[in-house]
Design goal:
alpha+beta; Helix Hairpins; BirA Bifunctional Protein, domain 2; eight-stranded mixed β-sheet; 40% helix; elongated
Length: 421
Amino acid sequence: MLDTHFVRSNLELVKKKVEAKGIPFADDRFVAIDQRRRRLLSDSEELKSRKNKVARETGFLKKSGAPTREMELRSIELSKQIGDLEKELAAVEAEFQDFLLNIPNLFHDSVPVGGDPGANEVLREWGDKPVFAFPPRPHWELGEDAGTLDFGRAAKVSGSRFAVYFDGLARLERVLVQFMLDVHTGEHGYREVLPPFLVNDASLVGTGNLPKFKDDLFKVEGYNLYLVPTAEVPLTNLHRDETLDEARLPLKYAAYTPCFRSEAGSHGKDIRGLVRQHQFNKVELLKFTTPDRSYAELEELTADAEAILKKLALPFRTTVLCSGDLSFSSAKTYDIEVWMPARADYLEISSCSNFESFQARRAHIKFKGRDGRKEFVHTLNGSGLAVGRTVAAIMENYQDAEGRVRVPEALRPYFGGRDRL
């Protein structure tokens, strides 16, 4: 959420940046609601002041033995007016808060302005793309032919966009979760967390998933609970309504969760394979930090995610997203994209974002500085990595002409030294 005073004082800038994200901004509606809200607040305070004055005068009259009936009737009338005004104010306040909650975060000045992914900028590339003496096959063909990946039985059990893994492929998925957590906790200094996989609506409001993206979520019928779309939600809300000590910052968390997304609006996109599933596994990295450190922490978080791909010897590139490709809550995002031989193109495998104070303001997370002053923390998160997409990348980059898949050297200790799935 943006600061109300900032929006009011910088309306032209807010409109420009919001619309550069591809989202309309009704500045005239903001002004109208804001002015009405402020007028009602002022009128309410005025009526309360008058009622207090009447109460004091009534007290004086009672002490002097004078009649108080007229003053009491005036107090009753003022109470009715205050009650009516507060009902109107509550409705306007709800409308105003809903408007604020649907304003996206403003992007950082270093973000390139553009309306679609074509304006994203490649920052760096790493690794040598494999050269095959045969046409590389897509991961779903490799898995289905080997009997280790079954989409048909998953559809029978659950529907489309689910997968069943068997044997070495199931082990690879499990091993990757452990490998990623081992690296991030043992080498990068993150604290491992196993959070709940169900969260309430307040948690989703705190991260910006609600109310904007309600259709992307799976809600548990009859409960105020949703399946997590990402570990970002429970991790961020660990400190909701808290004030952290600056000396403890940055806090760095790493967590594995399954993730559940309806993929609303993605019909026809990546319908084959493991790329866009309703359920997938992910290791998430999350940081709470001070504003002066947040962009340095973003660079480090991105490097931590890249390190997993380097250890797996998977070629990748890192891009900075343009304004029109940024998420609702992000101020700046780096996408890490892994090379997929079968499509002869890159595939996003991690998004590393700085949300600045946007989420912290919604979730009421502050820190107390050494001078005793309280400020909102900055939150950052990134996939470290999306596990199913990492499985798909390993299958395609490590395949041979017979359709077998080699185990990356970094993972062989987890496979008892085996070099093939």
